[in-house]
Amino acid sequence: MEKYAVVIFNLGGPDSLEAVEPFLYKLFSDADIFKFPFMRRQFARLISKMRTPKVRRQYEQIGGFSPINKWTEKQRQMLEVELRKVYPETEVIAGMRYWRPSISLAASKCTAAAFDRIFLLPLYPQYSLSTTGSAFNEWNRHYAGPDSKLRYIKEYHDNPIYISAISQRIDEALEEFSPEARDDVVLLFSAHGIPLSYI
């Protein structure tokens, strides 16, 4: 029976108020986002130190940590349970770009294990160099196994199954409103912004 690994990538976030500054430093040090080769680390130190007080206050308002880690772990567990129903020898591994568990740890684990195939699945449905691209680049810096085992999933924003799942969740949410009120419900799609130059 073949052994599969599915590595899910996400941004990650500080798991405490003390983690805010090191998290920001990792983010602002990313060469895939900040494209100047000289003094990037000095810039990252300066900007993370300057932004930390404001960002800490924002995290204090939501409990002192980022919820992205908890929800990614929940997705990891649920995906593993579902996949093992069909492929019992499957392990789902989380790799966070800027926090823990790190992509480097996931890559080391996959390098050491005897997986027959490794699926790289970013939790960002659309491709961007600053999200999926950066995660894949970080993976490639740390994975030392054969590339023939890797399957990169770069984007799935237009996959009919994904669209159907999103549509189903919208329909479920609309059911919470009375039939008369549904026409007045405003549906807001939101995501982190990216610079216009990337678009």
What secondary-structure arrangement, pairings included, does this model have?
Blueprint: E1 4-10, H1 20-28, H2 40-61, H3 68-86, E2 90-96, H4 103-112, E3 117-122, H5 129-142, E4 150-152, H6 160-174
Parallel strand pairs: 1-2, 1-3, 3-4
How does this model look, in words?
- This protein has helices spanning 20-28, 40-61, 68-86, 103-112, 129-142, 160-174, and strands at residues 4-10, 90-96, 117-122, 150-152.
- By secondary structure, the chain is an alpha/beta fold.
- The protein has a domain at 4-14 and 65-152: Rossmann fold, CATH 3.40.50.
- The protein has a 4-stranded parallel sheet, sandwiched between helices.
- Helix 5 links the parallel strand 3 (117-122) and strand 4 (150-152).
- The longest helix has 22 residues, at 40-61.
- The protein is globular and about 60 Å long.
- It starts with a strand and ends in a 25-residue tail after the last helix.
Strand order of the largest sheet: 2-1-3-4
* CATH 2nd-level architecture of the domain at 4-14 and 65-152: 3-Layer(aba) Sandwich
- CATH C-level of the domain at 4-14 and 65-152: Alpha Beta
The run of helices and strands is: EHHHEHEHEH
Q: Sheet with the most strands?
A: 4 strands, parallel
Strand content: 5-15%
Structural class: alpha/beta
CATH topology of the domain at 4-14 and 65-152: Rossmann fold
Q: Indicate the overall shape.
A: globular
Mean pLDDT, all residues: 93
Cα separation of the termini: 43 Å
What's the helical proportion of residues?
40-55%
Our count of helices gives 6
**How big is the Rg?**
19 Å
According to DSSP, the number of beta strands is 4
Low-confidence stretches: none
